[in-house]
Amino acid sequence: MKLAQLQQAFQAHVLRADPQIAQHVQEDARFATALRLGVYSGAYTLRLVEVLAESFPALQAALGANRFAALVSEFAREHPSRFRSARAYGEELPHWLGSKLSGPRAAGIADLGRFEWAVAGAFDAADQPALAAARLAAVPPPHWPRLQFEFTASLRRLSVTSNCVAWWRFACATDARPSRWRPTCPQQWLVWRRDLAVYYRRLSQAEARALDGAVAGRSFAELCEQLDDASRAATLLHGWISEALVTAVSVRAA
């Protein structure tokens, strides 16, 4: 077997427990073939568990270190990494955990994982200068109805149906441990980074729809129509600019 084939067979064993490579690994009186190969396949899984513990510390705090390690080890065996960067690994974990657990905790754990992923993604997003309020003030009034806005790459939006944010605050040592997992009505959350700090806040249903529309490219006139209130649209836009969410403004062609 050529070197490239050996490398592929070894990778298949590490990632999928493919046994083909075993016939090419010699054993001796001290180390059986399975033990020799297990050093590498076991180390690979353990490293992925370490990566996920760094990406999801709140999940680890909520589940407990032992339970987290057991579940994540199973996940790592079922979902080996497909990414060159370890940071990109783990997006599927929240949904997977939700499918493995039961009761209110299942939805809560999945929500908590998605919230943590959003926080990490916001922190890692590319830097972009925020739009200066003076730039918007300089736009001639006749152009305002056709204004469109670009938003920071760090912006993350998610909807949750649990008290997962309270559990996240507990993991951050800012709040006491919640007494239990509790289902809630759908909550809309915004996560973003400003300078080196990640911020988050809950959105009203109206603001969530308006923000999603603006991100999708709706014009200022369309936002006013959606909200049925031009002053409300202007107030929201002012807040988004103040929070450094908006990075650019343009005028849609007539």
Q: What's the arrangement of secondary structure elements?
A:
Blueprint: H1 3-16, H2 33-55, H3 57-63, H4 65-78, H5 93-100, H6 104-124, H7 133-137, E1 147-151, E2 156-162, H8 164-171, E3 183-194, E4 197-203, H9 205-215, H10 220-227, H11 230-242, E5 246-251
Antiparallel strand pairs: 1-5, 2-3, 3-4
Helix pairs in contact: 2-4, 3-4, 3-6, 3-8, 5-6, 6-8, 9-10, 10-11
Give the tally of β-strands. Answer: 5
Distance between the termini: 66 Å
- Note the overall shape: elongated
Secondary-structure-based class equals alpha+beta
Query: What is the helix fraction of residues, given as a range?
Result: 40-55%
Low-confidence spans: none
**What's the total helix number?**
11
> How many distinct folded domains?
2
Would you give an account of this structure?
- The chain has 254 residues and is α+β, with helices and mostly antiparallel strands.
- The protein folds into 2 domains: 1-100, no CATH class; 127-254, no CATH class.
- It is built from 11 helices and 5 strands, in the order αααααααββαββαααβ.
- The protein has helices at 3-16, 33-55, 57-63, 65-78, 93-100, 104-124, 133-137, 164-171, 205-215, 220-227, 230-242, and strands at residues 147-151, 156-162, 183-194, 197-203, 246-251.
- The strands form 2 sheets. The chain has a 3-stranded antiparallel β-sheet, with helices on both faces. Strands 1-5 form a two-stranded antiparallel sheet.
- The longest helix has 23 residues, at 33-55.
- It is elongated.
- The chain starts with a helix and ends with a strand.
